[in-house]
Structure formats: structure tokens, C-alpha cells
Amino acid sequence: MTAVTQPGPSTRFVCRSYMAVVLAPEPPLLDWVAGIQERINAAGRFLVGSPVVLDLSAVKLSASAIGHLVAELDQRGIRVMGLENTDPASTGAGLPPLVRPSRGAQTTLDVLPETPTAKVAPKSTTPPKPTTLLLEEPVRSGQSIFFPDGDVTVLGSVGSGAELVAGGSIHVYGALRGRAMAGSNGNARARIFCSRIEAELLAIDGYYMTAESMDKSLRDRAVQAWLEGNQLKLTALD
Amino acid sequence: MAKVIVVTSGKGGVGKTTSTAALGAALAQFGQNVVVIDFDVGLRNLDLVMGAERRVVYDFINVTQGVAKLSQALIRDKRLDRLALLPASQTRDKDALTEEGVQSVITALRKTFDWVICDSPAGIERGATLAMRFADEAIIVTNPEVSSVRDSDRIIGILDAKTVRAERGERVAKHLLVTRYDQARAARGEMLTIEDVLEILSTPLLGIVPESQEVLRASNLGAPVTFNNANSGPARAYFDAARRLMGEDVEMTIPADKQGLFGKLFGRRAA
């Protein structure tokens, strides 16, 4: 196919993130499917209508075996929207697409609002992918910023009920009142910095801390959070 | 050039309808041509607060569906004919509103009025997003308490994402209207202070409306508070807010109801 640029109706590409349930089949598969059937018997519409992703890391299946498994689940009302942790060669036509394998924290996402990442203009030469995301406006309640490629810097505040997810570190120059999750791709060296902490939740590489377990004396102060082993540490910057 | 303003909040019961009626009436009292639109299809209230509930023949949905002409559905205020109301339908629900229908009505109203004020329903669903869809400016009504402030924060985010202006890369000018403010309770720490609210929402302040019996009294009588008792605290706050909307520079105060000698001696001032 030859690519010709023509003035015409422009196409808008919008990135969205969704929450999906991940099912991880374990061998022996027959027993695993029987277990799912038991859950359906017990709970009626178990997972019916929910987006489901199959994590195939624990089993080694051929394309036809995957097709068989997907059909078995489909019969039970469970629709598989994607596969992860399997060989790309074993996912072909007729099978759900392979979603990017991911490690570390699973993040729940609301609708992604207009963030600079969603507005990348197509160019003839692709510039290097940015590794930091700078937000000059406050992040409002209900907004979810998802930037797996690196650090996120917010010049304003992050509202209560807002969510930042970064592959790298998170820097907030206003008050952090929402949730901040750094190192979401399994980067244990990521840190969270903010000039005033009132956060609901902090997480680094999946290890998290809620507002209740934060030291009260740190409240409203400038702090940083980092990971020491399996422990999330919080200390004042001033 | 007409201005389309949405009065919104996310949370219910904070005073969107009261504020729409009062600001619409205040702007009309300053000589402007104003139409207020009730977007709360199925739970309309603005007609009651404006005292026009017995005069509703056709409504917003009838106009969008071509059953009635816009001129037939508009209700001119009996006290001031520069002020008009487009009532919502009470028998339908929010799904009866379409984006095209709303757009055509707002485009038509822009031609005859100076101000088109859209009274948004509570929530963040269809009714609320359509009310803000074509707005040039937004008034975010907030009570000085945490749940209202957080809902307002959410609505501000939606204003920056889902309005036509935002999608074109332009800004929707935002104004914060703090209602039901009680300075004494804020001083005792029972309420957020104006400074707290402004710090959390980082949005410019349009006015501070004090908590007052006058508001309920006026809406029970079917009159915007600026008509019913123009000297009351809330009425003066709405008059000041209306003048700020028109671009005047008005000093920010919290007008109190009929001040006695004591109140005058310890006159209240906003920060």
C-alpha cells in the first residue's frame, strides 16, 4: 500500500485505558475450567459482560489450544478481550489480540482525559519518544494521568480523587491530594516527591501506603517517598 | 456578542438553580437581555424558582424535536420582559436531549439574547455534559464543604475535556461562586474557609453568597432573590457577581442581611 498524504477529513486517535479482569489459567486446564464453572454455579453471572484478559504465563498452549480455551470461556458467558504473556506466534486470526505484557502494579483507570500524550500530531519523521510528561494545569478529581514511559511532573495540585500513574518518578509542585503510583512498570527505584502531602494513596512498584498509614506529623509538608526492600518509606524534605 | 454560560457543580443541592435565577434576573435588572435554560429534563425546578410554573406550555424538548417553535416555548418574565425562561420537560428524561438539538437552540438564542444561562442538572452524565457542551464560560457553584469542593474539582476537569471549546483547544473561562457561606462557622472551623476552597480549586472567585433565610423565602414565592428582596445579603452578592460577569471590577465582600449597629461596627470583609 502506498501512503499518500491528502487533505481530507482528519482522523482523531484517542487513547483510552480500561480496567480488565485478568484470569491466569493453571495446569491442568480441565480442572481450572471446572473451577471457573464452580464459580459460575455459585455466583450466577460471574464475570459475564466484564472485559477479561487471559494471562497465559503459567501454561504453554498452541494457537488451537488457546482457541479452544477461549471458546470454552465464551460458552460460559466470559468474553476474552486479550491475551498476555504468550508467544506472539501462537496468537493468530480468530484469537483475541496479544496485549502488551506488563509487570508490577495493576492500575485501575478512569477515562483518560485530554492529556498531551493523546494529542501527538503525526509527523513524517518520528521524534524520539518523550520520557517525561509535564502538566502545567492542576490535575482535577476524577482525572487519570497514565504515563508508562517515564516521569510525570505536575506544576499545580493533584485533586482528591485524581490519579497519577507513571512508569518513572512523580513530582508534584502543588498539593498532592489524590493517588500517585510511581514505577508502575516494575521500576523499584522510582520516587514520589511533592511539596505538600495530603495524598490518599502512594505506591511505588506496586507497594502502596494509604493516607491512614502515613505519619501524621508529615501531613501538609513537603515529602518524598521511596522503596526500601518491600517497604515504602516517607520522609520530609524540609 | 452573546455569551453562553453554564451554571454547574457536580453535586446536587448546592444552589445551581437559585444562582441561575438570581444571576439571570440581576443581569436583566442591569439592562441586559437574558435567557435562562433549564437542562434538568425530568426534574425541572427553574420554572418554580422563576415563578413561571403555571405558564409552561411548550418546553425545551418540544423545540429540539420540532413540535414547537422556540418563540412559543420561551416564557417572558412578567416582572421584567428582558428576562426569558426556556423550561425543561418534566415528563421526559435526559436521553431526550440530543447534542444537535441543544446546539440548534443555543445558536438561535445567541442571536436574540446577550446572555444564555444554562442551569445544569447535578451529576456528570448526559444532562450535565450537554448543558456545558456549548458554553463559553462556566460558573461553578460550590458550598464550603469537602464533598462539594471535590465534586467541583471533578466538574472543572470535565469542563476542560468535554466542552466544544476544550476540544478546539480553547479555554472555557471558569468562575467560582461560593454559596451558603457562613463566616462565623468557617471561623470556628466547622466549614471550609474561602481561602481553603480557592486553594483547592485554583479558580478565580466570582462571588460569595452568604447563608440566608432569604433564599428559601424567595424561591417559595417564585421569585429570584434579586427581585424579592434586593437589599438582602444574597441579593447584593448576586448583583455584585453579575457586575463582575459584565466585566466590572467590584471589591469582594460578603454582604450580610440587614445589618444592625453591631453588624456595621464589625463589618464583614472577604479576604
Brief write-up:
The complex is a heterodimer of chains A (238) and B (271). By secondary structure, chain A is α/β, with parallel strands linked by helices. Chain A has 2 helices and 14 strands.
Structure, explained:
The complex is a heterodimer of chains A (238) and B (271). Chain A is an alpha/beta fold and 238 residues long. Chain A contains two helices and 14 strands. Chain A has helices spanning 29-43, 63-75; strands at residues 21-23, 52-55, 80-84, 132-135, 144-147, 151-154, 163-166, 170-176, 179-182, 192-197, 201-204, 207-210, 223-228, 231-236. In chain A, the strands form three sheets. In chain A, strands 4-6-8-10-13-14 form a six-stranded mixed β-sheet, with no helix packed on it. A five-stranded mixed β-sheet of chain A has the order 5-7-9-11-12, with no helix packed on it. In chain A, strands 1-2-3 form a three-stranded parallel β-sheet, covered by helices on one side. In chain A, β13 and β14 form a beta hairpin. The longest helix of chain A has 15 residues, at 29-43. Residues 1-6 and 101-121 of chain A have low confidence and may be disordered. Chain B is an alpha/beta fold. Chain B has an eight-stranded mixed β-sheet with strand order 3-4-2-5-1-6-7-8, sandwiched between helices. Chain B is globular, with a radius of gyration of 18 Å. The model of chain B is unreliable at 267-271 (pLDDT under 50). Classes of the chains: A alpha/beta (238), B alpha/beta (271).
Oligomer: heterodimer
How many DSSP H or I helices of chain A?
2
User: Total number of β-strand segments of chain B?
Assistant: 8
| H-E order of chain A | EHEHEEEEEEEEEEEE
The number of helical runs of chain B is: 14
Low-pLDDT stretches of chain B: 267-271
Structural class of chain B: alpha/beta
Share in helix of chain A: 10-25%
Largest sheet of chain A: 6 strands, mixed
Strand order of the largest sheet of chain B: 3-4-2-5-1-6-7-8
What summary fits the major beta sheet of chain B?
8 strands, mixed
How far is it from the N-terminal to the C-terminal residue of chain A, by CA? Answer: 60 Å
| Shape, per Cα inertia axes of chain B | globular
> Gap between N and C termini of chain B, in Å?
33 Å
Indicate the proportion of strand residues of chain A: 25-35%
Rg result of chain B = 18 Å
What is the global morphology of chain A? Answer: elongated
Mean pLDDT of chain A: 81
Query: Count the strands of chain A?
Result: 14
